[in-house]
Every structure is written in structure tokens, then in C-alpha cells.
Amino acid sequence: MGIDLVFVLEKILLISAVLAVSLVVAMYCTWGERKVAGWIQDRIGPDRAGPLGLLQPLADGGKLFFKEEIIPSNANRFLFVLGPSLAMLTACMTGAVIPWGDVLTIGDMQVSLQVADINVGILYIFGVVSLGVYGIMIGGWASNNKFSLLAAVRGASQIISYELAMGMSLIALLMLTQTLSLKEIVEQQREGYWNIVYQPLGFLLFLICAFAECNRAPFDLPEAENELNGGYHLEYSSMKLGFFLFAEYINMFISSALMATLYFGGYAFPFMDELGLSGNVVTILGIVALFLKTFAFIFFFMWVRWTLPRFRYDQLMKLGWKVLIPLALLNMLLTGGFILWQQS
Amino acid sequence: MEALTNRSQAVDRSPMNFWERLYLPAIFKGLGITFKHLFRKKATVRFPEEKRQFSPVFRGLHILNRDEEGRERCTACGLCAVACPAEAITMEAAERKEGEENLYREEKYAARYEINMLRCIFCGFCEEACPKEAIYMTETFAPANYQRKGFIYGKDDLLIPDPKAKA
């Protein structure tokens, strides 16, 4: 079997587009974060660089690249560089299985706007996301600083605790949809109701766990500046620090997209098939719908960050193990009962 | 015990009920509060374009005043330096010579008059101590400087221009 050049080209283009979009969205999340922070605190936020401060991310990026790069003399140099790279890599990888839109018809070619429609999409995301903690752990370990190490250990145990609850909250959803493919989950929601209708508790649990997985406030314990001098990226400077922070924003973007996909219909929007528009137009509107949902979630992430104070570590653990996991189990039980009741 | 003010509030230490222990209602309430702030009037003053109005009693940079004929009022009596709690003011006196009557109001004048703006606390005591109404505080800030010695303001920084020379 020869290599289908068109197929390879299509996928390369799609991968580049997804990467570029994730990076640009993450870039402008930093701007958005500062704007939202400003608004909530009755300030204006960045508005000096360009109109509305829109060039601020470029200025920030430029600054980070030109700052002095410091590697502590007792740090493990290889691992020290590997940490932020891993964080960045895993953050970028998750975008591959999210269906960004339906099928575009170009000529007689059908282009699916999903890099890989694999039948274990959700498992893939879980796998890659849990790898993301290696970036934090290796970064904290390689710094050879006990505060960074402490933060890294916190991050690791936090992610393990919340990954459990997250997975269990999703199992209830998978029991309903009977599939692990994200594309199929979206297609089911396109025909029926959005999954949030069937899984409100599951969504709430997933949302809380997503906050914890992204290390966003109120679950940003790996970067607690007041008790840990900064957290796992304490010894990092210039763009290596930038990569850590950037990875966090990419993670936020991807998990927002994931929540929109799993619970809010993804690229499906109400009455999309009754409008009588041509396939491509509907597809493009679908992309817009997905991005609107995603941005709403990103805004929610920021909104919560500037509302709630950070958890204490024992409170975080207690919430994860004693509240979220039992609730996720209960949700599974209820969903199972619901399915049985429907079948009988 | 009787409350000293009417602002004190009794602390509720009763155990939380179910809804309170859920935390979610409180979280949503908090989210509502922060969301309202998105639409509040912003307190920001965009500084270089917009300048804040100072109150009429604002005490900014000092000036050394002249009299109506354009002569320096300061006689280097040193009362401002004595009154200054931060010891920011130093001066050297000199005697007025023949032919300098149009420059200095009295026989004695300040040959050197310096205020260290890094020490100055802008209390306004110099203004109050001055018997000759020579030193006043204006409504401007001390501008930034790159060197510490740039903050030592001499007579050429402090003395207002001669009204006659301008006319």
C-alpha cells in the first residue's frame, strides 16, 4: 500500500492549524486573564500595547525570550530543560482527538476537522493529560530546590487524586453514550439533547476536576507563592518559565474545548440541521459554536480564579477523596439505574 | 460589655447546615459579586493622558517666591530648615552688595538654597515657618530622576521665574 500523499498533506495542515490555534488562543488567554482580572477589580487591564492592549502577549513573549536564562548550578541540566518541554508537549498533544468541526467538503474531498478520530479518544486524552504532570514533577525535581520539590509532589498527588474522580465522573457519561470516540459523542448530541441534560452532577464533578487538573485557582497548589516561594517553577526564568505558564493556558483551552465537546454538544448547536444551509456553512458555523462554548468556559476559568481563594492542601485532598469520588460513584449508580429503568 | 461603636457584628458560630456545607450556593453568590464588578465604573486614571485632580490643600514641589518687583523674598533666616522635621533643607546666606537691590529684597539673601526631595516629607512646615512668605508648595510632583543627586533641588530649580523678566 502506497502512502496517500493527499491524506498526509491534509493531516499535516490540520495538525499545524490545531497547533497554531491552540498557541494563539493560549497567547490571548494571558491577555484575557489580565483583562478579566482588571475588570473584576474595577481596573481596565492592559491597554497600552496596541489597540485594547492586543499586542500585549507579543510584548510579554518578547520579554520572556530576551530575559536572562538561569540554570541553577546544582540542577540536573537535562531534566531541567526537559520539564517545561514535556509540559508544553503534552499540552499540545491533547488537541489531536478533539473534533473541532464536522466535515468540510472541498471539491470531491471530505475533510474531517479532527486530526485523529480514534475510538479511544477519551482514554487518549486522559493518558496524555496525566503525563502532563511529569513536566511539573521533573521540573520541580530537577531544580534541586526543596520548595520546588514540595510543590511538584503536591502537584503530582493532586493530579492523581482528581484524575480518579474525573475518570469516574466520565464513566457515567460513557455508560450513556456507549462510546469513547469524541466524534461519536458529539454526533449523538447533535441528534438528541446535550449531555449536560442527562449528566448535571457528572458535569459539575468533571468541571471541578478539570480545574484541579489544569492547576487553576482555587486548585493551584503546585504554584502557591506564599507558602512555597513560587512553586515547581521557582528556579525557572525566561522562556522556560514561559513554557510552564503557557502549557497551563493550553491545558485550560483544551479542557474547555473538551468540556464543550463532552457536555455541551461540541460543534453541534440547536437546529443546525433544520436551517437548510449547505454542509460547509453548517460546518463553519459549528466551528464558531464550538469556539464560543470554549471561550465561555475559558472565561469561567478566569472568573472563578478571581473569585475564590486557594484551598488549603488538606482541604483539597478531603474534597477530592471524600466528596468528589463518592459523588462520582453515586452518579454512576444513578446513571446505571436510569439506563436499566429505560430498558425495562 | 457595651459596644464602643455601632459597627460591631456578632459572630455566628452555629454549625453549618446542609446547604452551607455544600459551599456551592456561597460560591455562586461570590461569582455573582465578581461578575457585577465587570460592569462597574473603572477606577483607573490613564495617567499620562488623564491627570488626577488634586485637592486644594495638596502639597507638592516647593517654589521660592519673589515679591511684586521680582526680588527674591528669601533672607536665608533658616527658619524653614529648623522647622523641617526631615532636615531636608540647607542654605548658605550671603550679604547683598551695592547695586543688587533689584535682585534681593533684604540685605541678607540665600546664596545657596537646597531641598533634598528624597528626604522631604511634604509636610508643609517650611511654608508655615517662613516669616517672609518666600517658600510655598505647589501642586506638582517631584519628577522621577535616574540619580540621587538629581533630587537635590537647588535655587535654579526652586526659584520661580522673574515676572518682570518674562514681561
UniProtKB/TrEMBL annotation, chain A:
PROSITE patterns: COMPLEX1_ND1_2 (PS00668). Its EC number is 7.1.1.-. It is a multi-pass membrane protein. It catalyses: a quinone + NADH + 5 H(+)(in) = a quinol + NAD(+) + 4 H(+)(out). Keywords: Cell membrane, Membrane, NAD, Oxidoreductase, Quinone, Translocase, Transmembrane, Transmembrane helix, Ubiquinone. Its main location: membrane. It is found in: Cell membrane; Membrane. GO terms for molecular function: NADH dehydrogenase (quinone) (non-electrogenic) activity. It comes from the Bacteria. The chain crosses the membrane at residues 12-31, 78-101, 121-142, 162-180, 192-212, 249-269, 281-303, 323-341. InterPro entries: NADH_UbQ_OxRdtase_su1/FPO, NADH_UbQ_OxRdtase_su1_CS. Pfam families: NADHdh (PF00146). NDH-1 is composed of 14 different subunits. Subunits NuoA, H, J, K, L, M, N constitute the membrane sector of the complex. Belongs to the complex I subunit 1 family. NDH-1 shuttles electrons from NADH, via FMN and iron-sulfur (Fe-S) centers, to quinones in the respiratory chain. The immediate electron acceptor for the enzyme in this species is believed to be ubiquinone. Couples the redox reaction to proton translocation (for every two electrons transferred, four hydrogen ions are translocated across the cytoplasmic membrane), and thus conserves the redox energy in a proton gradient. This subunit may bind ubiquinone. This is NADH-quinone oxidoreductase subunit H. It comes from Chitinophaga horti. The gene is nuoH.
UniProtKB/TrEMBL annotation, chain B:
InterPro entries: 4Fe4S_Fe-S-bd (IPR017896), 4Fe4S_Fe_S_CS (IPR017900), NADH_quinone_OxRdtase_chainI (IPR010226). It catalyses: a quinone + NADH + 5 H(+)(in) = a quinol + NAD(+) + 4 H(+)(out). Its EC number is 7.1.1.-. NDH-1 shuttles electrons from NADH, via FMN and iron-sulfur (Fe-S) centers, to quinones in the respiratory chain. The immediate electron acceptor for the enzyme in this species is believed to be ubiquinone. Couples the redox reaction to proton translocation (for every two electrons transferred, four hydrogen ions are translocated across the cytoplasmic membrane), and thus conserves the redox energy in a proton gradient. Belongs to the complex I 23 kDa subunit family. It is found in: Cell membrane. Its main location: membrane. One of its GO terms (molecular function) is NADH dehydrogenase (quinone) (non-electrogenic) activity. HAMAP family: NDH1_NuoI. NCBIfam families: NuoI, PRK05888.1-4. [4Fe-4S] cluster 2 binds at residues 84, 120, 123, 126. Its cofactor is [4Fe-4S] cluster. Keywords: 4Fe-4S, Cell membrane, Iron, Iron-sulfur, Membrane, Metal-binding, NAD, Oxidoreductase, Quinone, Repeat, Translocase, Ubiquinone. NDH-1 is composed of 14 different subunits. Subunits NuoA, H, J, K, L, M, N constitute the membrane sector of the complex. It comes from Chitinophaga horti. [4Fe-4S] cluster 1 binds at residues 74, 77, 80, 130. This is NADH-quinone oxidoreductase subunit I. It is an enzyme of class 7 (translocase). It comes from the Bacteria. Binds 2 [4Fe-4S] clusters per subunit. Residues 65-94, 111-140 form the 4Fe-4S ferredoxin-type domain. It is a peripheral membrane protein.
